[in-house]
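Progress report, Aim 2. The chain analyzed during this reporting quarter is listed below.
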Amino acid sequence: MIMMEYHNPVLLNETVDGLNIKEDGIYVDVTYGGGGHSREILSRLGEHGKLIAFDQDQDALLNKIDDSRFLLINENFRHIKRFLRFHGIETVDGILADFGVSSYQFDEPDRGFSTRFDANLDMRMNQQDVLSALNVINDYDEEALKKVFYQYGELRQAPLLARVIVSERKHQEIKTTAQLKNIVIKHLPPRRENKILAQIYQAIRIEVNQELEALKEFLLQTQDLLKTGGRLSLISYHSLEDRLVKRYIRSGLFEGEPEKDIYGNVEVPFKRIGKLIVPTSEEIEKNRRARSAKLRIAERL
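Predicted structure tokens for the chain:
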């Protein structure tokens, strides 16, 4: 079997420690990737423990762990409850997630996730999906493109970016990441091009993979899946993800405040465990991907 090259998992011990693992417990790693977090969980489980992992990327199947306690499901984590029930699992003791794009996906030129390489406009985490970056850039009208850049890239230049892309594609289809980069870079402020390019790519990627919708659907299901005392251990990489995770842990909602009963009490599904955890300078030096990671841990009440 060919092994795909993945970097070291971010906040490995802190994230798995956050699950407060019981030897005979049932745990879920919804972002399997190279299996780093999963291997650490399995090392802490006894013979009667069980780990179920999810990854929608077919390449992740090439790293499947050979262990009778382990099951890898090739699906998006937004379908977590349905597939756990299919395998006879109603509740679990802990759920781990390391959101965003894996190091392997960023470093694989053909996937089109990185500004460093020229590749076809793709950015699909699930290569079977129909919608790709090619469709977003060439088929979305100007208003829809502006919305993508503004909402998912938090870009003040969203109207300008949408306008120049629509203008350029009238002459020829924009097929590659290099074409896109050359079109937009001359409209970006000097010395900030790389940062803004990363935000542009992030916005397109989030739209292609419907990442925030999938995140919300996943989080809402964790209330039913976790046993009382069960743990969530969640790593986010940008403010859009982290904001949703933070609000959900605090109130079980993504916006607004929870309702109070007639006595003024608020019933919330989780309690926060500890404070926000970020990587040390030593970890960031070894793994640049870790620099924006934020780990939040919660326990089901």
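The first strand starts at residue 26 and ends at 29. The chain has two domains: 12-104+211-300, 112-209. These observations will guide the mutagenesis work planned for the next reporting period.
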